[in-house]
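Progress note, sequence design subtask.
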């Protein structure tokens, strides 16, 4: 014969008492009397036919049975709380965990989040940023937006768009640059990809070897911020800095580009897309087409 279901109030009383190791503090948290908490716990112990607490002179101690029960009950309450927080306007909010290169997140995605919310008001996007080094499985991500060639092990990748690089600098520096050769006298800022400036100079019809000690950044965001502060000339994707270019805070002195990869929407091959993932994939690919 199946065991009768356990009363929720008794489980809540046990969980709070086990966290605080005190009936009194549990009662304060639950807004009931200490006697009510003690009664609920005693009722649960009788139902389970085990002792969950050792009554000590100062507070409580968990028995082996109590220690085994606590993480299960705590996790169950946490999961219920998380689910209930996702209810709104008569339906459950869909959660999507997304990792993105910081440059992409700030320069492309954030300006379009209002459009995403309008298209999918029940999609709860949880965004984390990185410098293009990400472990989808370890970080529990549904998707990761990365920069590269699309070849990542055990990963399904959808190309979003190329992001060619060009020189970006303060307007007053740009005014001094009449030809690419004028950059020879400037401090060049670059990423950890050491061949980018060489590739750009070749695209400009010049041979160039980087000056040893050139400033190296792991993020285009940090690199362009350094350029904004007058540290030198950055080599970065202008598509990610349209706002700065539009407002005149940063300038693009030459229409010369070098491509070193694209932004990709990636996920683990071993994981089937959820409804939330499908909605986001369809939205972002449509947004890319509209922007191009």
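Output:
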């Amino acid at each position: 014969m199946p065991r009768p279901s356990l009363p929720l109030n008794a489980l809540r009383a046990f969980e709070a008492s086990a966290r605080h190791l005190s009936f009194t503090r549990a009662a304060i948290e639950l807004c009931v009397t200490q006697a009510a908490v003690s009664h609920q716990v005693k009722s649960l112990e009788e139902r389970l036919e085990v002792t969950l607490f050792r009554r000590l002179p100062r507070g409580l101690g968990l028995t082996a049975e109590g220690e085994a029960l606590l993480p299960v009950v705590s996790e169950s309450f946490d999961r219920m709380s998380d689910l209930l927080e996702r209810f709104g306007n008569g339906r459950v909010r869909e959660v999507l965990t997304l990792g993105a290169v910081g440059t992409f997140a700030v320069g492309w995605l954030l300006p379009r989040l209002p459009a995403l919310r309008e298209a999918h008001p029940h999609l709860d996007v949880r965004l984390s940023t990185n410098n293009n080094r990400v472990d989808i499985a370890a970080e529990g991500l549904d998707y990761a937006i990365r920069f590269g060639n699309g070849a990542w092990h055990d990963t399904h990748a959808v190309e979003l768009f190329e992001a060619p690089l060009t020189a970006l600098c303060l307007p007053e520096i740009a005014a001094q640059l009449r030809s690419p050769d004028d950059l020879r006298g400037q401090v060049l800022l670059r990423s950890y990809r050491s061949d980018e400036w060489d590739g750009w100079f070749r695209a400009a019809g010049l041979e160039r070897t980087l000056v040893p000690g050139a400033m190296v950044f792991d993020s285009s965001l940090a690199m362009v911020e350094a350029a904004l502060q007058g540290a030198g000339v950055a080599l970065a994707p202008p598509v990610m800095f349209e706002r700065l270019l539009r407002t005149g805070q940063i300038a693009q002195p030459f229409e010369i580009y070098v491509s070193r990869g694209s932004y990709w929407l990636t996920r683990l091959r071993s994981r089937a897309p959820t409804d939330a993932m499908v909605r986001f994939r369809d939205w972002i690919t449509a947004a890319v087409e509209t922007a191009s």
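The first helix runs from residue 8 to 20. Work on this subtask will continue into the next period as scheduled.
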